[in-house]
Specification:
The chain has 96 residues and is an all-alpha fold. It has one domain. Helices cover 89% and strands 0% of the residues. The protein is built from 5 helices and no strands.
Length: 96
C-alpha cells in the first residue's frame, strides 16, 4: 500500500515540475483578481462616508504638507500605495 502512495506522489511531483509555470500563471491571475475585488470594496466603503466627508478631507488637504502626511497615513493604514492611488484617482474621476 505504501508503494502505491510513493508512485502517486512521484507522479504528482513530476506533473507539477512540468507545469509549474502554468500553475504560477494561474496563481497570478487569482491574486490579481482578489486585488481588484479588494480595491472595489475599499472604493465602495469610501463612497459610504458621503460627500460631506470628502469635502472635509479635501479642505484639510488644501495645505500641501498636510496632504502629504494624510497620504502617508492612508498608505500606511492600507499597506498599499497602489490601492491608495487607485482610490484617489477614482474619487477625482467621480467628482468627489
Amino acid at each position: 500500500m505504501t508503494r502505491i502512495h510513493i508512485i502517486n506522489g512521484e507522479r504528482i511531483i513530476g506533473w507539477y515540475r512540468k507545469h509549474s509555470s502554468f500553475m504560477n500563471f494561474i496563481g497570478l491571475i487569482i491574486f490579481l483578481y482578489l486585488f481588484f475585488i479588494s480595491l472595489e470594496l475599499m472604493g465602495s466603503s469610501l463612497k459610504m462616508f458621503g460627500k460631506a466627508f470628502a469635502k472635509s478631507l479635501i479642505q484639510t488637504t488644501s495645505n500641501p504638507i498636510v496632504g502629504l502626511f494624510i497620504g502617508i497615513l492612508s498608505t500606511s493604514i492600507t499597506h498599499s500605495s497602489s490601492s491608495t492611488t487607485s482610490i484617489v484617482v477614482g474619487m477625482v474621476a467621480g467628482g468627489v
